[in-house]
Structures are given as C-alpha cells and as structure tokens.
Batch of 2 targets.
Target 1
Amino acid sequence: MKQYSVIILAAITILLLSTGFYLRERNPGTEKGPQVIGLETEIPKSYSNLFTDEFGKLYFGHPETGVRYYAGDIPEFRYEEFQIDPVGYDLGMTFDFNAPGFNGTIYYGLIKEDGVDFPQPVFFGKPAFIQDGKAVIPITDLRGKYDFTNWAETGNTLLGYRIVYEDGSIIYDSRVRMKGKVPFKTNLTIIDGPYLNILRPNSAVISPFTFAFASDSRAGKGGGERNIYGANAYIIKKMAALALFEGAGFVQFTGDMINGYTTHRQYNLLQYQNFKHAIEPFAHRIPFVIAMGNHEALTYNFMEGDKTRASIDKFPWESESAEAVFSEVVVNPVSGLKSEDGSKYDPGPKTIDFPSYSESVFYYTYHNVAMVVLNSNYWYAPDSKMVKFTSGNIHGYIMDNQLEWLKNTINKLENDDGIDHIFVTVHTPAFPNGGHSNNDMWYGGNNGMRPYIAGRPVEKGIIERRDELLDIMINKSKKTVALLCGDEHNYNRMRITDGMPMYPPDWPYEKLKISRTFWQLTNGSAGAPYYAQEQLIWSDNVEKFSTQYALIFFNVDGKNIKIK
C-alpha cells in the first residue's frame, strides 16, 4: 500500500529591487470608457463571428443585427505595478509610484521571523500617506520600544506593508527586507512562497488521516480584510489555520479563489497573489490543491459603451487564456489530457483551437484516497445567451474529451488495489440547491443549454451531460464516495438516490438509474457572499444546509470515512 508525503517545491518569487513601479491613476471619474483591444494573433477556429477590422481591432459581429461590438479593456490595478522598488534614505524608505494623482495610505510594521511559526507584520500605530504618487516610511520611528526584531542593533529586518487606496479599499500586501542602519538599503526579498504543493509516494504504511475541503473565497462583505482586492483574506486565513490545527494532510480548494472576470492577465494575477498571501503562512506547512471555478475567468469583453454584450475566453491560449494564467499561479499535477482538440467537434485538425487542460484537470492520491479534479469552466464564455453567436463553453458543462478522460481515470483507479476511496471534485454542483438553480448542471431544467463550437451546438445538452457524469461516478464505480462542489456560497449535503426527482416535466430521453446511494457535498462558503436555500424538485434529498462559513473535514481510517 502506498503512502504519500509532501515535498516542497521552489515556488518562490524574489523581488529584485532594481526596476521602477508604475501605477496609473485609478479614479473612476477620469476613465474614458473601455480601451479598444488590438489583435496580433489568429482567431481560433473554435470561435464564430469574430473578426478584426482594417486597424487590427478585434470585434464580434452580431450575425442578426450586423452591429460590431469591439473587445474592450476597462483598466484595473495590475500585478506588475505592485512590484515596488522602495529606495532607502537616512530616515527610512521612499516609495515613488510614478503616478501623479494617486493617493492612499501605507500601513507598515516589522515582521519577527525567529521563533515564530506564522510571521506576520505588526502594523505601527502611525501609517504613511501616499500623496500624488509618493510616500515616505520613517523606519527610524520603529526604534526603542517599537523595535521587537532588534533591527537597530543588527541592521537587518523584514518590513511588511499594506497599500490602501484613497477610497479605503485594500489593494495589496507585501514585504521588503532591509539592511544597514543609516542610510537604509533594500535587500533581496522573498515575496511569495515557498509552498507545499505536491504529494509523492515514499512508504508502504497506511494510517488514519484527515483532509479538508472548501471553495469560493472571493471577496466578501463587511469591510476590511474581507476584500483584499478580490479575495476574502479574513476568512481564508481562519480556514487555513483551522485546517492546520486539525492536522489535515491537505486542503482541496475547488475554485473561485478570486473575483476574477477581468479582461487582462495582470488584473487576475494581482488577485491571485492576494489569495496566495492570505494562505501563505499556513501553506508553508500544509498543501493547498487548487481547482478552477468560473471566477477565474479571463475574457475578451465585447462592449457597447460601458456594457458588455458578449464575453469569451481570451486567446492566445498559451499566454492569455484563463487556463494559462491559472496554471502560472498554481503547482498541480499534469495529466495526459491536453485539450478539446481532436474531439469530433474539432474544427481544425491541424491547428490548436482550444486552451490547455494542463493543471486544471488531473488526479492525485494520498494514502488510500484518490482525488479527481475536473474543470467545469473550461473555455468558458460567461454570457450563455450569446454562446450560440460567439461559440464557447457554458458554465458547468464537462466537454467530451474531459468526460472521456474521467471515464478512463475512474476505471484505472477502480483497478488500483491501493485505492479504497475516490472523490471527484468540480466547481459546479450536479444538483444546485442555493444560488445557482438558473445554471450549474440544471439551468432551470433547460437541457437546450450546451456549448457551441465553430458556430455549431454539440449533441448533448447540460442535463444529459450531467447524467453521463453521474453514471461514471455512481454506476461505473464502486469506490467513488462523493462529488465535492462549490459555486453556491453555502454548505449543503445531499443524498442522491434512485427515483429521486431530477428531470423537468416531459423529459424526452431515458432517465438515469442510480445503482447505489451517492453523496453530493457542496461547500462554497470560504468567504464569498452567501446564498440561501432554494426550493427545487430534489430538495427533500438535501439533509443539511447552512449559510455559515464552513470547512469540511474528512477523517479517513482504512475503509471508513467520517466527516465533520
């Protein structure tokens, strides 16, 4: 029997303090609307009704009205702008944002590292103010009774800081290492990592263990750290600490880390970094395995004024798609599943017409448990009503190649004597119960919802595809224990049984027979704004529902599993 332990990957970002920091003025009153996007790459054949004009500008041409909607970029804060280069001087450090008109606050404080398990900045009582793009931090104020790192004697310390915009929103947390006394100088600083990321076999001993599950930590309500520019750091820190306290071997986190839905990779990268900073002190010791959700979306938005009329996954796939940027910020296993290229709907057998599945669809094992991770927001086009015009995948749909990969993977794990339990995790529930009855794998009972590829609908609708997914997990597998979902911002536990209501009236196709009791556990309550329970045709099968923040723990002891 295999046992799996954790290895450390060098997922470390080092701040090289040598380049300038550039930040545009972010004042909604001065924005002139979306900036039209030029295109220097070929439009994938999988899309439809996309063109470039004589100036190289990308647009969606509505086939029914003939109206052109141009791809637009509404500026937000960018990750690259916050790779700050402070400059030391006799009394401390200066920050020059090279952004006249940018005003805000910098909170700062020393970080004690020696003998501290989870080092965090202790913010000083007096913040510094950003005025017209410049700020000064007087490090000398941190001497005497405020010097708990002994920097005044050693000449070395780590300083944490937080940038807050003038409207009160927290934008970014970071740190900088200092050396010397007078004048102060900056030193190479690790600003991201290291993290525990991958599980590897190293033993033949199986022992009881625990793992945790949650999703949906995008920005919440209530102010403060509940929204550090796209992420609810306040709640996710608590959940990470609780997972470590409970001795979890790993945390499976399935989507919607961030607000996302942006139009530039740099906007998403900044939000990802805020999520990672929140879990970092704990992720030194416990691995977080991250999956994609819909809020990881990175899109071309086709605009009419300030309104979005259609939206699709960005390309070029290898650098600009939601999938590519996601794979930059996580360290996940890479499966043999490449993309939807090669499927029967592939419009270009010799071209790459879909984004990569790399690091968003995979499986891993830990002791006698296998976790199969799916991506139900692959090649995602957020406006499902416009998909028939632009082409793209809808929210919640598992496309053909991915479904075939799942079938083969489950079969492989069924025949693995070292695996007793299989979990499948995907962001969107098969049966929504609170907040997403209008989509997920139900769409209010509308089986007409489905992806379009190169302007053509695929054969199977969303409910038919849901049934195929359930058939693989339940009827084709004896080991698969549960489907772990997010998307709905609540906790609910649902028992799936044969004969339960699960179809709209006058369903014209064969109904799925359920061969055994199966569980769907939804836990999208890691910080996003809550959704209350909805009354649906299968609501009698929902055994527990809560809008409180929650972290599920699975206690695995051989053949037995208990949750709390």
Target 2
Amino acid sequence: MIHIKNLIISSTMTSWYLFIICFVLSAMTTTSSERRGPFFTVEPESHVEFMNSSGAAIACSSQGNPSPQITWIKKDGTPVSDVTGLRHVRPDGTLVFQPFRAEEYRQDVHSAIYRCVARNVVGAIASKDVNVRAAINQYYETQVYDVFVTKGNTAVLKCHIPSFVKEYVSVMAWMRDDGSIIHAENGAGGRYTVFPTGELYIRMADPLTDGMRKYYCQTKHRISGAIKQSSSSGRIIIRDAHSTFPPRVIDRRANLIVKEGSTVKLPCAAEGYPIPQIHWLKLEKSQAVRLSKNQRFVELGGTLIIRRAEPEDSGKYICYVNNSVADERVDTELLVSAPLRANISPKQVKAEEGESVIFNCSIKGHPVHSVTWVKNLNPVVANSRIRYLSRDLLQVAPIVREDKGMYQCFVTNDFGMAQGTAELSLGGKYLS
C-alpha cells in the first residue's frame, strides 16, 4: 500500500515536472518567435518647465519583447547620470529633477535638452527632444508709464516686465482706478483691445473718459501661477491738435507667431491729424490685395482679428495708414504653426534577405524644417542599397542581415519635434 502510494506520488510529481518543462519550453519558443522592438507607451512632452522650489518628474515608458530598458541621453548623445541633489533617473525610467536653491542652478542640468531611449535585443529608439527649463523663484515688479496721445487717436499702454522673467509672465488684465477691469480674453471689442503681448489699445482717446484715470496691469507667472499687479500706474495724457500732421505708426509687430486654431490680433496703432484711417492688405503673389471681410477676418479700429487661424493664413500682412496729409505702410509677417506629427508605414516589416522595402514617413503639421532618418539611434547613410527616394521615403534594397532593427524619422521645426517608428526583421513575410 505504501509502495503504491509512493508510486502515485512519484507519478504525480513526474507529471508536474513534465508540465513545467513543457510550459517553459513553450514560453521560450513563443518569446523567441514573437520578439518585438521597443515602442513608446508614454513619450515625454517636448517642453517641460518647473519652478526650482517644486522640481519635476518626467515619465517615459515603453513596451516590447523582451521588455525594453529605459535610459536617458543628452543632446550630444552622452548618457544622463545622476547629479546628487539635482537630477536622478529612477529604476522605472522616470527622469527626476529635485527642488533646489537658486545658487544650485546649473545650466547643463536645468536648461538642457534630453531624450528618452528604449532598447532591447531587437533595437533602440529615442524620443523627441525634451526641452527642460527650470525657473528660479525670484522677486519682480511690473511697471506702467504715462503715455501721450493726440485727442481722438489710439492710446497704447504697455506693461513693462523685467527681462529675467518676461518669457514666463503674461498680462491677464488691465485695471483702472475706478474698479473697471479689461480682461485679455475678451478685450477685443468696443474701444479696448488687449494683446497677448500685454499692450492695451484705447481707441478714440477722450480727455473726459480716459484722461482722468490711472491704469494698472495684472500679470500671471505661467509656471508658479503667481498673480501680481503693477507697482506703478500709467495715465493717458491727451493733447489737442493745433495743426495737421502726417500719420505715424506708434505700435506694430514685425513678426507674429501663433498656434493653429487660436484667435490672432495683428496690432497697428497710428497717430495723426486728421485722425488717420487704417486698412489691412495681404501680400498674394507679390501683389497687395484687400482682405475679404468674413466671420474669420475682422478689422477693428486698426487691429486685424483672425479667428480660428489656419496655417494657410501665414504670410505678409500690410497695415496701410493714411490721412489727408500723407500715408504710411508697415508689414507684419504672420506664421501660424500646427503641431508636428510623424508616422512611418509600414510599421512592422518581416522580410527575407534580398527583398526590398520602402518606408514612408507621413508628416502632418506646419512648418516642417527638416526630416532625418536614424536606425537604432544612428543616422541612416545613403549608399548603393539604401536610397532616399524623397525627404519622406526611404528605400532599402536588397535587404541584408545588417539592415534589421528599429527605424525612425524625426521631423523638426523651431517649435518642436515629432518622430515615427518602424521595425524591420528577417524571417517570414508580413507587412503591417
């Protein structure tokens, strides 16, 4: 009885051993046959800004088979190492910037470009550039000064922001000493317009309604969220015209960059007597043409407002100012940018040696300044087998063993970067 029981136990154990061995062998076979290169499941944003008092954590994760290893590199390709008390890479691949004192600021750490890299036995891929900027929490004041204007013309008040915080601080609203508030988001009607750069236009300046008030600007720090009122106020000093004089443009922009879908305000303020008329034109095929007024294009007292801006709206706009004495014109170059996106097709190619493949980098966004191709982080160099059919098309023919790996196209402009990823492996045939 004991002998039989032992046999039963022995048989049971043998069955379990066989089951485990078969399972492991099956898993190993499956793992080997289903190898896949890395692809990002969480890719960092192009721009990361943080206050020195708060720090930041930039997540990056990927999948693949086997599971990819996450590392970080600098712009020059060198690995990112820990800097005690300032920068640390977690085991999960998160890049951490710790809170620091102002005197601990390091440009090579806190104002630098980083890339996340995912790597396994199939190949390696890199994220788009991550521009990291740390802002120091420091005291600042904004100022508003008096301005002079001839009665009936447009007065332009400016909010003067210190240069060391100007890139982070924007004007939210203008306030008068009588409690009136003119908000930036709706200050585009009637006699008032508030521009994204902070200027306040007051059209048809009148000594009784405008000349008796003090004006303050209210600003917000976009990272810290701190809201401040200007430490000084400005007044509009309105003069009577005693004789005619030609128009003079007192405020304009030479260049303006906006995002697709936003509302654009092209400024143009002029002073003269008689009060000058202002019209807008656009340069089309070297010829200045009047703008057709519709729901998207509106002229408001010298300001051209473009709603739901499109990349096609980019170009040179002309502000034409005239009165009975003379005329003047100034130009504004408008660029409407659209977010970059890149995608490679086919995304996965399994081919035999001697065959060929064409990778197509499909690009969306505006403008596009450059397109570059890399394989396993190294630039793709054209030769007798590898040819650039165009900026967006890469041909590999005939395929050899050294061609397998991860291919990427990187698309860039002055505002950001996008990347697409594809995998080339050798074996049975499929495209996806």
